[in-house]
Amino acid sequence: GNRTFTMIKPDAVESNNIGNILQMITDAGFTIKAMKLRRLSEDQAKKFYEVHAERPFYMELVEYMTSGPIVAAILEKDNAVADFRALIGATDPAEAAEGTIRAKYAESKAKNAVHGSDSDENAAIECAFHFADEEIV
Ligand code: ATP
């Protein structure tokens, strides 16, 4: 697949790193196909992270993702899902490779600056969750 979905999470918006992160994304060869600044409601965050509903950190995750605005975007590139996950690095910034977005900008395993879809199937679901067809260029 050639598309993935990302969010710049509340911690990275709050720390004024929207511009730095978008620069890293476009420098890595991704094209922005859709983008918006938005605030997720509790219901929207719960639905987006439904797959994690049974995990012990689910409510913490929902609370964090509704704590401030996020930037949602659709990114295009060959091999987008895998290449984007390589660019963002491991979930825990302590384990994220040098030069990755999370190594540079994540605060912790929970407040980890960015989201990236984990499969082509989920990328399609997540793009449709946040964007109508006419919002995609
Ligand atoms: P994402 O799906 O956001 O790209 P990921 O695939 O690297 O992240 P997952 O294991 O799917 O990580 O967890 C989803 C999100 O839940 C993480 O990005 C992080 O914000 C949060 N999270 C994961 N593990 C923990 C934890 N142990 N405690 C608190 N929050 C966590």
Automatic annotation (TrEMBL):
Its cofactor is Mg(2+). It comes from Parvicella tangerina. This is Nucleoside diphosphate kinase. ATP binds at K9, F57, R85, T91, R102, N112. GO terms for biological process: CTP biosynthetic process; GTP biosynthetic process; UTP biosynthetic process. It catalyses: a 2'-deoxyribonucleoside 5'-diphosphate + ATP = a 2'-deoxyribonucleoside 5'-triphosphate + ADP; a ribonucleoside 5'-diphosphate + ATP = a ribonucleoside 5'-triphosphate + ADP. It is found in: Cytoplasm. One of its GO terms (cellular component) is cytoplasm. Keywords: ATP-binding, Cytoplasm, Kinase, Magnesium, Metal-binding, Nucleotide metabolism, Nucleotide-binding, Phosphoprotein, Transferase. Its EC number is 2.7.4.6. It holds the Pfam family NDK. The keyword Endoplasmic reticulum does not apply. Residues 1-137 form the Nucleoside diphosphate kinase-like domain. It is an enzyme of class 2 (transferase). The keyword Lipoprotein does not apply.
